[in-house]
Amino acid sequence: MTKAQTPDGQWLRCDGCNEILYRKTLEANFYICTRCGHHFRIPPQSYIEILLDDAELDELDAGLSAKDPLRFPQYREKLKQARQKTGRADGLGYGRARVNGIPVVFGIMDFRFIGGSMGSVVGEKVARSIRLAREERTPLVIVSTSGGARMYEGMYSLMQMAKTSAELGLLRQSRIPFISIPVDPCTAGVMASYASLGDVIISEPGALLGFAGARVIQETIGEKLPEEFQRAEFMLKHGLIDMVVQRRDLKDVVARILSMLLPADREETGEPGSV
Q1: H or E element: which one contains 39?
Q2: With a cut of 50, which residues of the chain have pLDDT below it?
Q3: pLDDT at 274
Q4: pLDDT for position 8
């Protein structure tokens, strides 16, 4: 079949092995290549369907949107385009949900929104999700995918690293579990702040994780980097994350971890209580 005869969007090429795959086959396999196991990037709604009971997220603050505090050139237009593309006001959604019957506060980033960058709104929503988890004594689960801080907001963006990290410090003092799930790609300011501060950090096979880009690091230290540097498996080997889990198994693994971290009466009743 020639390219002209191929139905638009029905076939996808795997970045792992270059195999041409039928979209419906991929959908049935959680967008994991049936030949090499490569995990395709998927939108936030897919993670909601994979992780949450009945794919239901009671989203909060959905209309919270960024301003243009620095009057950065073309930033307003980029925000407008991102909102039209994703149907979201900004790059993160959060709210109440359940994972195998266990109540959680769940957050999900959208890489399609200006590269999942963390500006003032994304940082504020992360902070609000942490506060909600602390107030209701409910476990926190956040799926993060990001290129880092949003340069269009300058210092406003960088301060979100400190704000979210400080909020997580209070959550830990309250002994409320936080499961962080950084997925491909999760880099720079997000990976250098809340995404790497989970009580348990889970990623997917082959996910790109790290702070600075590999080329920048290599040029800075003047040495050749190890093979598969900044991939999830490398991070696991060196203790920077706790687990690498196949996408199809994410929900069961998260539920099992929560079951171990929560008191038995809390898990059964779903009521707030000490953790």
Answers
A1: none
A2: 1-7, 265, 267-275
A3: 41
A4: 55
Residue 266 backbone phi and psi in degrees, to 5: -70, -45
Q: What are phi and psi of 172, to 5 degrees?
A: -65, -40
Q: Return the closest-CA partner of residue 242 out of 190, 177, 146.
A: 177
CATH number of the domain located at residue range(s) 42-269 in this protein:
3.90.226.10
The token pair at 76 is 């307003």
Q: Distance between CA 275 and CA 262 in Å, rounded?
A: 6
CA distance 139 to 84: 32
Mean pLDDT score of the chain: 88
pLDDT of residue 120: 93
Identify the CA nearest to 177 among candidates 62, 267, 67: 267
Structure tokens at 24: 């419906």
Q: Distance from first CA to last CA of the chain, Å, rounded?
A: 58
Partners of 179 in the β-ladder: 141, 200
Domain with CATH 3.90.226.10 in the chain: 42-269
Q: What is the pTM of this model?
A: 0.87
What pLDDT shows up at residue 2? 40
